[in-house]
Design goal:
two-stranded antiparallel sheet; 20 helices; 6 strands; Ribonucleotide Reductase Protein R1, domain 1; Fumarase C, Chain B, domain 1; two-stranded parallel ribbon; homotetramer; 435 residues
């Protein structure tokens, strides 16, 4: 985790104090359930809640851990310092460290998912707003980086909206994947802890009981979670790359908002660089790199090993913090993006009329010219425009083979931009449920 | 794709003949829709269906492509050879290659998903059968590869069942992700092809129309698809690793079925090696490696570039064929797995009684011994068993500090195996919906 | 492996016939060494060479393997069919399958490396030629996709040359990594086969004996090999991305060679798309994806397991065939690349004079203006050029605060392009050893 | 970076104070060179060294950066606060941020490599010591996790030594890859800064001048660096997995050193878990995951973009800190590893004599039995041992078909363990240069 690429709410989820607080709640709720079942005395369960408002002392717990070399035991020892060692006697009874650690980790991931879901909703709102704002802003569509046919900037925003809307669904699915808890004791048989303890703790903490655990919660869930984050990050990169292209000097159809105090370059003061989206490109790689180790974590040995732990201590915070930051940064970029409609038009008309070549091709075939001949006719005139910058429509009007098939009026009609935008409403309706 | 790790049904999906057949259906249905809309003559649409029973000549299409260097044009040229070049004049009108290629690729992936879903159902059936068969077969549970507490072999199968059942859901979600089609023309504006053509083609081919495409279908869908395959492959590895461990000479709790004709080793004829599950471990890596390139494919430039294509030509067939083979092989391994319950018991009793140490610990604390003291008492006796192989129960009965807290009868009771299996029914009910 | 992305020489390395030929040579040389040591009769060793000119019958070997389910035994059985089963009695004596398989695989990788090294030399020659050709072709340098300061197209080629020259070194190191052989018998102790057999076989086949093997050759070697290929592929992507950028409609400083018969787009006949470099971008991903599984292969269990095998059967051919094709394709692209110097100049002058802003900044500070003030002065004028397209030099000459520090002549001097190219010779000397 | 998996010397390399110190040295040396060339006044160059003993105020620099949003400018502003803003006027003249940032990053990576190289030397020393200690400690070799033939524990250590020795070479190569510096100014043309400045700075800081840079140092170097780390990490995993296997309850041929105060399990006090090597397995994944993003960083746009930066801010510290920790931990594990030779013997004799089956097979063929028959005879007796635990030698002596070919004395001779260790000296000589 790099502070400059992080936001406080997400960071807070991963603070030691948060972790210990969650551990505490798991233990305390478990004690309640055990008291309900008559396994431990009610007063001991009650006593645990004495620490309800305590902020646990991380340094003290670390100190104990340095001695015991076991984090959960260190915490329980510290808890006893608050609750009284006699009163705390039954805390964690029949449970294993994994019951606490895994349930806690899933709670942290679930909360992280909640933030990411909210981030995504914010991004969707920004994309939607900009889509409607530029619904009819004409822009050349490009394939292979080469001018193809006209489209609108609104459609660009709309397709990012649709992609991010799918990502919202994926994040929700990912949240469900890891919103489980397990209090199943050693090797997951519930021999030492009743399944109803797990049910109670999960109900209190908003989790589903893991149907079958093996001391640990199965890691295919986490693999699926991080895979979903990797997909979302790849979509962030997708939008970022689009903006970086748009901001290129030669294209300049859009630019990241540029505050006057900001220095673009220590050497070249005029430069306005798309540094935010370049940064997002890198952040996407960081999130994506966590997918494979999360998948490698699935195959634990027998009922559990601890190889996954160091991986998760790292990728748990790093992937969620980085993606949270990236989504917020992207939302901000979209929100304030400077859009230059005049440059869009100027770019489109760089090879005058050329973008209409497909329409002319169709018209020729519909007028009875063979596909092969039509292709040849269009290509012949198109290449001239490409090479000399002359006007495509004029060239066509001067090509006897073309005018033998199409009248001047028919040719003119092919250069109507409305032809290309006639289904924008339809597409908006598909994407936003309204046009 | 390696022939030895492939099965014919999945391979068939990726044959050129299948691809051309799908291309044909897309074009033919599109012609129907265009005729319905009055865009092209009905008789031309009808004429296309003349090729309905044709198996397209791959060599001939390759020959044309060698000249035109464009696969879709090559196919259309060949189609015209069947249908008549005048009749075929309107085929593909207003469409782009991507309309055909992307819709086809998604159909192939959808069919591949259908096979994988069926594979998974087969695997689930095998796991379920073996789970019930060994529901009460006692086996030591292990954490860190070290004996922990007893469990049953049925629970091992049941947890793989639960994991694969989640994977079944993931495969279904993945199928939905890519079961879309797009006939939206150049840069996706529908300028040259009516949206109703897309709707008709998709309806005929069992797809959902892509709400907004940009000449290509957005690749976040494919990233999510391959990510799901990567998760499934990681679960395959998980089961494979378990079996490889069980088959180790020193453990030998299970073994892959071994046919007598098979030679385990050219040098050491007695060896029965877990080569199938070792192979599955490698196959899992092969499937998993496709996840990152699929994610790198998301960020295409503007309305499309073709960088994704070579990646997908490879990982499309490779990941699905390999995973299909892996799931089938794993099903077979599970189905025929030799299970050795006596060895399980022998292993568990290697350090006699030691696996009950947790119960004794609990009993001591419940009898009023402090947690710290109880831990010390148990550890003292446990280490002796570990080092000398003596009997844990006997050691406890001879330890005055222990017997001061627990009576012999109380100690004896802690060594009842039924204690560890008492919730197997509960867990089976959670996993299978019945016990 | 996808036929369309492959070349015959590299494919041939991975053909079954090549593999069996190598197996044969390993076995035959091993017999010679064993005869030298008096371990087997000389006449039996000699008899093996009777098959010297045989092309082994792959179908027959497959047939035998179908029965024995062991590839090396199947081959040895087939070999005996040629040599005579009595004569062949001592073939493979004391050896294991891995002795043959691993040594063979390393020979294949070594040969593959030789081709890749030759490919790289071809690419270097092309880059060098184009570098000198365009040594002084002025072009705007860009950071963040934004115009920065002038450079030359020759420097662009030269930097790719330097990068690929490092890759040549990496390929040679990679070749050395895997040019080892092992004939060390079961678990690598040489108990059943004398180390001198290994030495002889390796000497005959151009390999170094593996200092210590464990039935298998250690897989860190292969991990390093595929990692090197991954780096090379990433450099291929680097060059490809540069060309894709240069070919963008708005930039058009270069273009892939376009043969007239080729159809760029089925719909838009005028388009010249950078499809080769887009393809290379995808191929780079395919090579790169093999790095992680090759690394996952390192941790085999004890003296060997077979999990690496299915991975290598796939990535061995796939990564080398794909990279060979990619390097050849890139060489061809570089060789024939259409370079448009006029467009380079036109692009550079899009914001007239602006690229000289850094020089003006320096001149102002050298004339005694504070850094902060100089920055402000330059930025003020630069932004006007950016926004209105006016001429930067004129703006400066009209800015009283600027002319207070610099005379008109001093300002003019800052717009000399030779200032930016004065060290091109120096850099060429560093890269090519001559200017 | 996770504090618990880090060591102070490596962490110090990545501290902001270290970074600023390096930036300072780059700038100060550059001023010296510029003064030598007469480009800036000598007294200004001298003045910069006034800050020689200053520990830069990170908080103050952050404060300035918050305003300027540019890290290098913030540092230079702060430097001027120490040196005097008039004296500092020429600092950084003609340079770009990347000149400072990239040269600094490479210095940090070079220093990190130095630590990793020293770590590796420490690990090699430990492996060598343990190899000689257990040179003749007999142990069963295993393939596929199944007993194969005898080997020695010394050979196991020796093969890890050989692998890590190759890794030492790889680390040195990796160090050379990134021990370069660049002071080449905007877009790398040296237009604003003389190449001799770069030469001087590099000479002072122990770097090689980058032959050709493009404002940034080419990232293929960094890709190769992180790839090397990924290979080393995979070897760490390789050793870790071996130890985890050896410590399994059923195998117990070795164990991580276990201090008495350490609690293995909160629930099961007797357990000695291989938690260090499990942890190393996870850490290996963390290092390995940085390889792909480092490779994705290679293809920067034109003369530079900043997408690599966020990736490197993360993986630079994380990969080196984690690998440093892992190597140190592994060294400690090897150093203190508890080895149990009696258990090794007991395991080997689990199926009495079976591990000699290969020798018997050979003896039979050498006695004139056909390969097929010999295989059948050995397998027949071997399977009986496998299934009943009887003694292989006795079975052979009782098999008339066997004794028809081999005398009892000949059979007995095949069970001499010295046969398997006779080349240990040879192998040690190959690995360590002495036996």
């Amino acid at each position: 985790m790099i502070p400059r690429y992080s936001r406080p709410d997400m960071v807070a989820i991963w603070e030691p104090t948060t972790k210990f607080r969650i551990w505490y709640e798991i233990e305390a709720h478990a004690c309640d359930a055990m008291a309900d079942l008559g396994v431990i005395p009610r007063e001991n369960a009650k006593a645990v809640w004495k620490a309800k408002d305590v902020e646990f002392d991380v340094a003290r717990i670390d100190e104990i851990e340095a001695e015991t070399r076991h984090d959960v035991i260190a915490f329980l020892t510290h808890l006893a310092e608050h609750v009284g060692s006699d009163e705390a006697r039954f805390v964690h009874q029949g449970m294993t460290s994994s019951d606490v650690l895994d349930t806690c980790f899933n709670i942290q991931l679930t909360r992280a998912a909640d933030i990411l879901i909210a981030d995504m909703q914010g991004l969707l709102a920004a994309l939607r707003r900009r889509a409607y704002e530029h619904k009819n802003t004409i822009r050349i569509g490009r394939s292979h980086g080469i001018h193809a046919e006209p489209t609108t900037m609104g459609l660009t925003f709309a397709r990012f909206y649709a992609e991010m809307d799918r990502n919202l669904t994926r994040l929700r699915t990912a949240r469900d994947e890891i919103a489980t808890g397990a209090i199943s004791g050693a090797v997951g048989t519930f021999a030492n802890v009743d399944p109803r303890v797990e049910e109670h703790v999960c109900a209190q903490l908003g989790l589903t009981p893991e149907p079958i655990s093996t001391q640990v919660i199965p890691r295919d869930r986490h693999a699926a979670f991080f895979a979903a984050l990797g997909v979302v990050a790849s979509s962030v990169e997708n939008v970022a790359i689009e903006i970086r292209h748009m901001q290129r000097t030669e294209v300049l159809e859009a630019a990241e908002f540029f505050s006057m105090g900001q220095k673009g370059s220590s050497a070249m003061p005029h430069k306005k660089n798309p540094v935010l989206t370049e940064n997002l490109t890198g952040l996407a790689r960081l999130v994506r790199m966590t997918v494979i180790p999360a998948m490698e974590n699935v195959a634990l040995w027998h009922e559990r090993d601890i190889s996954h732990s160091s991986v998760e201590r790292n990728i748990g915070p790093d992937a969620t913090i980085t993606l949270d930051f990236a989504l917020a940064r992207l939302t901000n970029v979209i929100d304030k993006l400077l859009v230059y409609p005049e440059n869009m038009l100027a770019n489109m008309n760089r090879f005058p009329g050329l973008v209409m070549s497909q329409r002319v091709l169709l018209a020729l075939t519909q007028a009875g010219v063979s596909r092969e001949d039509a292709y040849r006719l269009v290509q012949r005139n198109a290449l001239r425009v490409w090479e000399t910058g002359c006007d495509f429509r004029t060239e066509l009007l001067n090509d006897a083979e073309v005018t033998a098939a199409l009248s001047p009026a028919e040719i003119d009609e092919k250069f109507d931009i409305g032809y290309h935008t006639k289904h924008v409403d339809t597409i908006f309706r598909r994407v936003f449920g309204e046009s």
